[in-house]
Amino acid sequence: MIVQRVVMPGLGSESWTVLGEDGWPVGPIERFLAYMSDIGRSPNTVRAYAYDLKDYFLFLRRRDLDWREVRLEDVGEFVRWLRQPPAGRDGVVAILPVTAAYVGPATLNRKLASLGAFYQHAARHGVDLGPLLTVWQPGWRARGPWKPLLYHISKDLPQPGRAIALRVPARVPRVLAAHEVQAILDACTRLRDRFLVAVLHETGMRIGEALGLRHADIEPAECLVRVCHRFNANGARSKSRDDRVIPVTGELVRLYADYLNDEYGQLDSDYVFVNLWAEPMGHAMAYPAAYDLMVRLRRHTGVDFHPHLFRHTMATRQMSSGVPVEVVSKLLGHASVSTTASVYGHLTVADARRALEDAGWLSDGGVRL
């Protein structure tokens, strides 16, 4: 089985499908992926679903199982199968017990979530496997001050949960130091590239959101940048469904003006970031060009980074500086404040030391040691 990119005729939009050994799309997977594309899921999301379901159907074929008749134990066996290296999944190569798992807990949970979405879609077409991947648990109680909408009504109602969920170790996102960001900016030999890095660092945008920026989204007089969810010719997308406005510094606006005056010139395009030195000239800058730029900057500076790391850096520093989590969540475009708090609300050693020093604990504990 292989995952194949698909371009919709007449629309130019991208999707994905899974081809079987006969070269034809696998029917159940194709129906599900087509549905996901129809309701507006991003091509990257559909692609991830395609790879997850390809693994699942490959497992079913090697176990001679029908996807409509699997049991919970079969799904558990699928998890164990995924943990093995590809060479050991067919049973030809023996795997030592000390061998590390090939797939981590976070990836396994994502694949199980893909199966859950697939079987929910299948249930609406007559293939209902009941509690294969979903179980009903007692109502949950909010442990903190934040409570979801209609919490007073739903707190005692049963809630759906995963029948199989692996524990994922908490990971603190890495943050770029100020001198690392400065080195990356200084390594940019063109204003367009410097402005792109500056936008990522100051606004915390995703790379797709930055590549989809239009000139109308920047309000120089008010020092504001708007992130909009819409179709872009370069395939760039905003993951957030709702538009948002981000305040920026006057320095960033001046860099934008320098970029327009010195490099953009009289080019007629709605897009802020365009191809100026490579074909197709004047077209919106696409993902491959942006990632090629990041590779060159990594090689030149020796700083190991990726575009999303600027987002982590901005959010972490804002939280550490005392910016309310609700504000940070709004600027990032998160659908839930709890997502922001769980990812960026970690307490670093530096944060703990600063709090202890402010309280006078480290300077005068009242006890002579």
Q: Please, how many helices?
A: 14
Query: Which sequence of SSEs, written as H and E, runs from N to C?
Result: EEHHHHEHEHHHEEEHHHHHH
Q: Which whole number gives the mean pLDDT?
A: 81
Query: How many β strands by DSSP?
Result: 7
Helix content: 40-55%
Topology, element by element:
Layout: E1 2-7, E2 14-19, H1 27-38, H2 43-63, H3 72-83, H4 105-123, E3 134-137, H5 151-154, E4 159-162, H6 178-187, H7 191-203, H8 207-211, E5 218-219, E6 224-227, E7 244-247, H9 250-264, H10 287-301, H11 307-320, H12 325-332, H13 337-344, H14 349-358
Antiparallel strand pairs: 1-2, 3-4, 5-6, 6-7
Helix pairs in contact: 1-2, 2-4, 6-7, 6-10, 7-9, 7-11, 12-13
How would you describe this structure to a colleague?
This protein is mainly alpha-helical and 369 residues long. The protein folds into two domains: 2-134, Tyrosine recombinase, N-terminal domain (DNA polymerase, domain 1, Orthogonal Bundle), CATH 1.10.150.130; 178-315, Intergrase catalytic core (hpI Integrase, Chain A, Orthogonal Bundle). Helices cover 45% and strands 8% of the residues. The chain has 14 helices and seven strands. Strands 5-6-7 form a three-stranded antiparallel sheet, with no helix packed on it. The radius of gyration is 24 Å and the shape is globular. The chain starts with a strand and ends in an 11-residue tail after the last helix. The model has no long low-confidence stretch (mean pLDDT 81).
